[in-house]
Design a protein that fits this description.
By secondary structure, the chain is of the alpha/beta class. The chain contains 10 helices and 10 strands.
Length: about 250
């Protein structure tokens, strides 16, 4: 191990840095995740079982603060990791064959906090996974991992080139594609029935694109009060996943 006070190094190319206890521990516990190096305070590292193959640097809180963006709450732990290997949509659909776990599709949701929060809700309600476009969604990052609170390591995340084409494949796998939008006539409870649900959510502010809406089997809304114009996409996802989980 390097001595305390060792100057923080620059992140490797394409390697995100995770920070905070939950994201770092989840990364260490994920056999599919390669952790390249770690930094931490002596107190935070004291009770961790870190493989000897991972270089570890002791650092004080101020040093760690320079490794993460802004005032991010690192809780004394930072890890540099390799992004997870890409997953094919067909492989994800095969994993869910025979069960009713919902699938989440995000149409150009770019805010990493929202994507992380949706991953966390997906883990809480046992969703099959999430599907996003590769060019219009955030990469793996410390922000996503922090908001996901460990779920980035457990919820499959498929990136596709063409979302509409992916929606066709999802329909062929037996999913009923329900798009959440405030201008729908029916509520979510009216539309989900006992189907295998692929829940489609649009971008912050703009909502779903027209082409995405036309690839949904049905559009639905959440029955929110007229005092509120809309919900944050991550809040809407959590409520919808709950509704799917408790349907009769």
């Amino acid at each position: 191990m390097a001595k305390r006070g060792h100057r923080p190094s620059v992140a490797g190319p394409g390697r995100p840095r995770f920070y905070g206890r939950h994201p770092v521990l989840a990364a260490l516990e994920n056999p599919e995740r390669v952790v390249r190096k770690m930094w931490g305070t002596r107190e935070a590292l004291a009770h961790l079982d870190i493989p000897s193959s991972i270089p570890v640097t002791y650092a004080d809180a101020a040093d760690l603060g320079r490794l993460v963006p802004g005032d991010a709450p690192h809780q004394g732990l930072v890890a540099e990791v390799d992004p997870l290997e890409d997953m094919w949509l067909g492989d994800l659909l095969a994993q869910g064959e025979g069960d009713r776990r919902p699938l989440i599709l995000l149409d150009q949701v770019t805010d990493p906090h929202n994507v992380g929060a949706i991953l966390r809700s997906a883990a809480a309600f046992d969703a099959l996974g999430i599907v996003t476009q590769d060019r219009h969604s955030p990469p793996e990052s410390g922000t996503v991992a922090r908001a996901a609170s460990g779920a980035l390591e457990t919820v499959p995340w498929v990136r596709v080139v063409n979302l509409a084409r992916a929606m066709d494949e999802i329909a062929e796998a037996g999913f009923w594609r329900v798009g959440l939008t405030g201008h729908a006539e029916a509520t979510l409870a009216d539309t989900i029935g006992q189907n295998r649900i692929a829940l489609v959510l649009g971008a912050e502010g703009e909502g779903m694109r027209q082409n995405t809406e036309t690839h949904c089997d049905q559009l639905a809304k959440l029955p929110i009060s007229p005092k509120v114009e809309s919900l944050n996409v991550s809040n809407a996802a959590a409520i919808a996943l709950y509704a799917i989980a408790v349907r009769g």
